[in-house]
Amino acid sequence: MSAETSVRDETTADGRAVSLGLVVAVVLVAANLRATLTGVGPLLPAIERGSGLSPQWSGLLTTLPLLTFAATSPLVGRISHRLGTSRLLVLSLIVLAAGTVLRSLPSVALLFVGTVILSAAIACGNVLLPAVIRRSVPGHRIGAVSGLYVTVMGLVAAVSSGVSVPLAQALPGGWRTSLAWGAVLIVLALAVWIPRMRGDTAQGGPAAPRGATPWRSWLAWQVSLFMGLQSLAFYVTIAWLPSILVHEGVSAAEAGWMLFFYQVVGLLSSGFLPLLTRGRHDQRWAAVAASASIGAGFVVLLVSPQLALVSCVLLGLGGGACLVLALTFQSHRAGSTAQAPALAGMAQSIGYLVAAAGPLLLGILHDRTGGWSVPLIVVICLCVPMVAAGFGAGRDVQIKDPHSS
């Protein structure tokens, strides 16, 4: 029997308007999903000097969030079913605040422990936001709301990476204080979400079966693989683009600005994609075009590194669009509101495992070959299955929910 259906769940929020309060609540959670992570990279030299960490341990510090995402994501749907979505979001924000404070205390052990704790909390938000959108937003607005929260998430992430060093230089406590500045955003999100807990009940009982993780659905695997491969491309670019450009003779400062430019283009792409796909439930060709743009960006970087600006434009256009699509698929392709957290958990668990392997794999290939040609060829080849997964995940079908009638 097919694990997919083209019949939409008419019991979703398709008949409701999107409230401003909901949009603000979603955006404030989104603002907290990257801010505490992206500020670490620019601070790594100061962290190494201040804590005595070796480059290997610093590499582990930056990889820990992805590994924690992968380990935590499959559990979120089950916990949400027991506690309720709003309650779990509030709890995750509280845990995020605790992890952020712990990480900034004067202890190397707490630096790592705090990173794991805050990453587990962020994983909850990563999984729950597509589920909240699936439950509360009309189907034709899902892409727009997803695009908005991806844009805010990226904007705050870029700001965090930009202000982390100046804050470390200006505030008492240096890099430790800078690591904790994101707690301000957490307090704002809590102020909005605590009132939304009223009426949010656990979903247990026979009337509200928990959505099972759709491991046997090929559509779910396509959504998961697309999530993983586009994440791999993003984290590879973030980790290695400056090194590739410096290897080609670009100054370190110029390479840093190229990375910033790439992120700005990605923000513009994620903001405009919902306008281009408004009202379209079939997103196959958007996924194909965005994936192909990423592949083309890596090809330009391989054959004409002097055209790095063109490469950054192509990578940013494709990367921003792919992230919006990957998150939209997690909402659109679920067969019911109960299944949405399960699908998001599966997609993000697999996705972040794949993403964590990408930078490490390219680093190993670079060390073995002494150049960037082989690593770039490998990433270009991986864009082919990303195109295929995007084409499959973009179809206007849904995973069959065994509990639906």
TrEMBL record:
Domain of life: Bacteria
UniProt keyword terms in alphabetical order: Membrane, Transmembrane, Transmembrane helix
Transmembrane segments: 17-37, 57-76, 88-105, 111-133, 145-167, 179-197, 218-243, 255-273, 285-302, 308-329, 341-366, 372-393
GO molecular function: transmembrane transporter activity
GO CC term, one of those recorded: plasma membrane
Topological type in the membrane: Multi-pass membrane protein
Positions of the Major facilitator superfamily (MFS) profile domain: 18-405
Protein location: Cell membrane
Protein's UniProt name: MFS transporter
Organism: Spongiactinospora rosea
